[in-house]
TrEMBL record:
InterPro entries: Aquaporin-like, Aquaporin_transptr, MIP, MIP_CS. Its main location: membrane. The chain crosses the membrane at residues 20-43, 93-115, 135-156, 163-182, 209-227. The gene is AQP2b. The lineage of its organism: Eukaryota, Metazoa, Ecdysozoa, Arthropoda, Hexapoda. It comes from Glossina morsitans morsitans. Belongs to the MIP/aquaporin (TC 1.A.8) family. It is found in: Cell membrane. One of its GO terms (cellular component) is plasma membrane. This is Aquaporin 2b.
């Protein structure tokens, strides 16, 4: 993930390689596919473990498919965090969020009409339980967004050399953990586009703002925390290691030259 100055990026709309439009289509397709997986899983019952692993595996598969093209955001909270940390332009962020919301909604509508009505009882999952106040729900969604974005920033840090599939697995496991720990209290929203798709179908907009404000604000805080503290603290160690390596290579070359001189 590279750092750039804040840019509107509207010139990307006219780029000859059409990278922006290809990436937006990838985000649309990824959100569509993810919500087909998640919707079908949630429609089968109230088993929180089953739902958690279905969502986590869905995130993993979708990121493997589209991650190298668009970055595999498939979540407005991720896109906003990347915008704040100057990883994407304003134009790209807006197009991504629109694509994510449209893809998620279409995916959920697809599942609704593919499955029989008897399977729909498990879909009202993005709700606060009776003992959870709006403030508690907001705090939970904030924590979920914070942990998700912290995992993403760590997985794709330029100072690491992880394989793409390993990064995707880390993100999928984070989503799984979020659903396992807090899924019973808020439904484990974590992704505003997913929650929007369910609300659009069932018309349940109660405390809908929690599922946008919580993950997005949590993602912004994670971006600030990682970029300003964790990412910077890694750089001196890497520079020191690189200097030691260069010194080692230099000393080795000097010894080789002296050895050649002695032989001569």
């Amino acid at each position: 993930m590279s750092h750039n100055k804040y840019s509107c990026g509207f010139e990307e709309f006219y780029s000859k390689d059409h990278n922006l439009w290809k990436s937006a289509i990838a985000e649309f397709f990824g959100s569509l596919l993810l919500n087909i997986f998640a919707g079908a899983a949630c429609a089968q019952g109230e088993d929180i473990i089953f739902k958690a692993f279905s969502n986590g595996l869905g995130i993993y598969i979708v990121n493997v498919i589209i991650g190298k093209l668009s970055g595999g955001h498939i979540n407005p909270a991720v896109t906003v965090a990347m915008l704040i940390s100057r990883r994407v332009t304003i134009a790209r962020a807006l197009l991504y969020i629109i694509s994510q919301c449209c893809g998620s909604t279409l995916g959920m509508f697809t599942i609704k009409y593919l499955l029989d009505d008897i399977y729909h009882y498990g879909w009202h999952s993005y709700e606060l339980t009776e003992n959870i106040s709006p403030f508690q729900g907001l705090a939970i969604e904030f924590l979920l967004g914070f942990s998700l974005l912290l995992t993403i920033f760590a997985a794709y840090d330029i100072n690491t050399r992880n394989l793409h599939c390993v990064n995707c697995l880390a993100i999928g496991l984070c989503v799984t953990l979020g659903h396992l720990t807090f899924g019973r209290y808020t439904g484990g929203g974590m992704n505003p586009a997913n929650v929007l798709s369910v609300a659009a179908i069932f018309g349940n907009w109660d405390f809908h703002w929690i599922y946008w404000l919580g993950p997005i604000f949590g993602g912004i805080m994670a971006a600030a925390f990682y970029v300003q503290i964790l990412e910077i603290s890694l750089q001196p160690k890497i520079i020191e290691a690189a200097d030691k390596y260069r010194l080692h290579v230099f000393e080795r070359e000097m010894l080789k030259m002296k050895s050649n001189e002695n032989c001569a």
